[in-house]
Amino acid sequence: MTWPNPIWNAEHRLRNGWWVLAFFVVLASGLFPFLLSAKQAETAVSPGVQAAVVLVASLVCQGLRRRPIGELTGRLDRRWPRELFMGFLAGAILMLLPALALAALGILTWTVNAASLATLPGAFAVLAGAVIAEELVFRGFVFQRLIDGLGPWPAQLILAAYFVLTHATGLAAAGELRPLASVNIFLASLLFGLAYLRTRSLALPLGLHFAANVTQGPLLGLGVSGDLQPGLLTPHLTAAPAWLTGGAFGLEASVPGLIAVIVATILLARWRAGRSYGENVDHADVAPSSKPSLNGRPVDGGATEPPSSSRR
Fold it and tell me: Which of 36, 204, 249, 294 could form a disulfide with 83 if both were Cys (CB 3.0 to 4.6 A apart)?
């Protein structure tokens, strides 16, 4: 019996697990000076700085692999801004529908908070930095290496669990809503991951994630994963069960929000994206048998056969 080489795969390339480790080493090296400086100043590393460091770490690792940037971000053609806009639209609808449902039930009303207009650009910038950093980590280099090594859905499940862990601080303050909020965040990660798998581009998940956060936070004035800041509208909740409204945590801890994420995931799974599976994939690292199919047609987001050991 021949044991597989733990370092190199059958194509004599570094196995994907080592690339994941390399990414986090580069990321930690880049973040350490900022974390040290922030600790001394008794502040936090800004989302913009986090996004920049994650981007640099991603580009460094992609360069070390000698692979094009377009494989990381998705091909930067005319589809990229179109998919980004589609993400903006879908993310806004994702949060508007449960909010409007609560309004229709008489549970949620708003008053205009004109004073927040001056703070909106800053709020948008903070959320943009946070979303870019998260999507580069959870749908970028690490996600793509796990897909190549394990297949799409094992990668999805691993990073969805990690996504929940990164929201641990907000979840800890959610109280009795913590289980519901955790499930919602887990499924939201699967939704964003599916957005990547259907397009092989970061544009759609970036737009979807950013618009969802902006809509429920700076616009509707609701909590974003437990972070409650003044918005363009000030919400007023009537007496209603916390599981119905999400309380201070936001719609991510509500049943209407959960239903919206489930419906969006189902619709996205049924959507036929214009970008074919593997258009931005390193085919030398992916066995032909791992291409997912459904009724004889290739689709993004699943594999009909387990990955071979040479890909890990």
Answer: 204
pLDDT in the model for residue 273: 60
Is there a domain that residue 4 lies in?
Answer: no
Position 36 in a domain: yes
- Residue 256 structure tokens: 């209407």
What mean pLDDT is reported for the chain? 87
Would you say 287 and 310 are in contact if contact means Cβ atoms under 8 Å apart? yes
What tens digit of pLDDT does each residue of 86-131 get? 999 999 999 999 999 999 999 999 999 988 888 899 999 999 999 9
8 Å CB contact between 151 and 306: yes
Q: pTM for this one?
A: 0.85
- According to DSSP, the β-strands at 233-237 and 293-294 are unpaired
Specify the number of domains making up the chain.
1
CB 210 within 8 A of CB 88: yes
Alpha-carbon distance of 21 to 146, in angstroms, equals 11
Q: In which region does residue 5 sit, left (phi positive, over 0), alpha (psi from -120 to 50) or beta (all else)?
A: beta
Nearest to 282 by CA among 3, 53, 9, 5: 9
pLDDT 10s digits, 249-303 = 999 999 999 999 999 999 999 987 655 444 454 444 444 444 444 333 344 444 4
Residue span of the structural domain in which 43 resides: 16-311
Measured CA to CA, the distance from residue 171 to residue 79 in angstroms comes to 36
